[in-house]
């Protein structure tokens, strides 16, 4: 299929939250400019390939049992349902970031499960640790992506696969007891969790938090991807409060301070975070580094 967006679109920026860089096992961008995504859908596994043509049109092709559902969801995934009307930039840096990134949209996959697994793995560990565990779980308990995509492309493990993992394999993947317990609890009620996409907003995030181990941060990370929640700020994040603080008020902030600074932007606070991040603002690199932990050696 082909999709011609009626808005300016930066494909890489919109798809960015779904990937974890060049080592992501379920999102691969080739030198030819094709972005491949391997996902679980309500109809089964599916692979989606997206290519932006020179005329701005998006060419999409899909394979597997979930192919039809993936193609139907392309406009939403690329931000066609995103509504930034009424957004007002209360800081010059936000206004500047918005002008420089007119193609930034908040996309919606319409799916909770894959985002949930990765978000739980990222709880209280470094991105390096989380990506290592994510890659190993996808390789060992996911499945090869349908279709002709890159050979390393993997569909994330299903709820059934997550429930089948024995303790020593969790340990080998570097996933501690708390995170594995949360994933198993979520896997037991996975179909019901998809209701969060229908509820959206505060209600949707509260629905996700019914699972023990899913708190404010995890629910926000899922909401940002599953329904493009424009207000779901990842409170509890190690980097974001400092990044927002230095960008907007020139000093480090904690969660309470960030909440106060972002309050005028409600209900589009997450949009501000995305603008700042896309514009290149980062947490200043000073202070002690987080120690990498290898749970496989414990």
Automatic annotation (TrEMBL):
<dbReference type="InterPro" id="IPR051912">
    <property type="entry name" value="Alkylbase_DNA_Glycosylase/TA"/>
</dbReference>
<keyword id="KW-0234">DNA repair</keyword>
<protein>
    <recommendedName>
        <fullName>3-methyladenine DNA glycosylase/8-oxoguanine DNA glycosylase</fullName>
    </recommendedName>
</protein>
<keyword id="KW-0227">DNA damage</keyword>
<dbReference type="GO" id="GO:0043916">
    <property type="term" value="F:DNA-7-methylguanine glycosylase activity"/>
</dbReference>
<dbReference type="GO" id="GO:0006285">
    <property type="term" value="P:base-excision repair, AP site formation"/>
</dbReference>
<dbReference type="GO" id="GO:0032131">
    <property type="term" value="F:alkylated DNA binding"/>
</dbReference>
<dbReference type="InterPro" id="IPR011257">
    <property type="entry name" value="DNA_glycosylase"/>
</dbReference>
<dbReference type="GO" id="GO:0006307">
    <property type="term" value="P:DNA alkylation repair"/>
</dbReference>
<dbReference type="GO" id="GO:0005737">
    <property type="term" value="C:cytoplasm"/>
</dbReference>
<dbReference type="GO" id="GO:0008725">
    <property type="term" value="F:DNA-3-methyladenine glycosylase activity"/>
</dbReference>
<dbReference type="GO" id="GO:0032993">
    <property type="term" value="C:protein-DNA complex"/>
</dbReference>
């Amino acid at each position: 299929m082909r999709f011609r967006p009626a808005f300016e679109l930066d494909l890489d920026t919109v798809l960015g939250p779904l990937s974890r860089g060049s080592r992501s096992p379920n999102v691969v961008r080739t030198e030819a400019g094709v972005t491949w995504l391997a996902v679980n859908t309500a109809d089964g596994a599916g692979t989606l390939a997206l290519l932006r043509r020179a005329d701005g049109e998006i060419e999409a092709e899909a394979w597997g049992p979930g192919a039809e559902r993936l193609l139907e969801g392309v406009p939403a995934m690329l931000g066609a349902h995103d509504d930034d009307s009424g957004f007002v930039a209360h800081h010059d840096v936000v206004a500047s970031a918005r002008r420089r990134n007119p193609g930034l949209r908040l996309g919606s996959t319409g799916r909770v499960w894959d985002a949930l697994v990765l978000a739980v793995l990222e709880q209280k560990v470094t991105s390096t640790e989380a990506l290592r565990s994510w890659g190993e779980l996808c390789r060992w308990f996911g499945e090869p992506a349908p279709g002709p995509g890159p050979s390393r492309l993997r569909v994330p493990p299903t709820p059934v696969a997550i429930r089948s993992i024995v303790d020593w394999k969790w340990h080998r993947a570097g996933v501690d007891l708390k995170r594995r317990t949360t994933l198993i609890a979520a896997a037991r009620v996975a179909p019901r969790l998809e209701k969060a996409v229908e509820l959206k907003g505060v209600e949707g995030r509260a629905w996700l938090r019914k699972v023990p181990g899913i708190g404010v941060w995890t629910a926000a990370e899922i909401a940002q991807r599953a329904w493009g929640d424009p207000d779901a700020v990842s409170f509890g994040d190690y980097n974001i409060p400092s990044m927002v603080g230095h960008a907007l008020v020139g000093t480090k902030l904690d969660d309470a301070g960030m909440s106060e600074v972002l309050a005028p932007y409600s209900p589009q606070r997450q949009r501000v975070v995305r603008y700042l991040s896309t514009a290149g603002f980062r947490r200043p690199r000073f202070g002690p580094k987080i120690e990498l932990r290898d749970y496989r050696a414990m």
